[in-house]
Write a structure and sequence with these properties.
With 266 residues, the chain is α/β, with parallel strands linked by helices. The chain is 40% helix and 17% strand.
Length: 266
Amino acid sequence: MTILVIGATGKTGRRVTAALDALGVAYRPVSRSTPIRFDWTDQSTWAAALDGVTAVYLVPLGMTLDDTEVAAFVPQAVVAGVRRIVLLSARGLDSDDGRERAVRESGVDWTILRPTWFSQNFSEDYFLAEVLAGEIVLPAGGDGAHPFIDAQDIADVAVAALTQDGHAGVTYELSGPEALTFGEALARIGDVSGRSVRVVDVTPADYTELLMQGGFAQGYAEVLTMSVIGIRDGQEAALSDGVPSVLGHDGGSFDDYVKEAAGAWR
């Protein structure tokens, strides 16, 4: 088995490659900056990435909701000899999502991962600059709880699905073990970093505009805004059992995460 890891420099991708390395499983890490280059927007890069691989950790392009790339990639992967696909999706999506549908209809073993928001969004990107600046801008103050998940748990579930039997045809809903409001999460970050970080209320329209000013495509910015509103309104507080059902134990707590990530905020 040789596993293609798309997005190998990303939050889950680099953790997947580290876990595969520890297991002694052959893998090929690809991104736009790796020696074997992979670019979702350049189909001429796909064949070299797929050459000789039998499984794929498939991470779609995060800055677009266009599913045409995945729909084109999956059949090419199958023709190239891929027999197992593990797709990183997201909570709130369903089988009507074009990317999920392409994987389900691939004709090979597939597993879909639908995680909640990553804990690492506070320390590796997205919210990091705002945490360091002392305030996070969110619609309606960010009220409502969410079970942020450690990216390591997502990676561990992905590796299990890539390397073990028993996960084919399964969609795993993944979450952390505890739901927190943004204010509670920031307070715990403050406990380990000594920083005081507040939530600043803006309208949903203003939030979408801020995301677009930060480089997000309009469609993706609108979906992120709706996701935050869902958290605010209490629609995203439920815990999921995907992590313990696959790994046999609860995922990492937010407290454990902030202790490990504390250096990012100091």
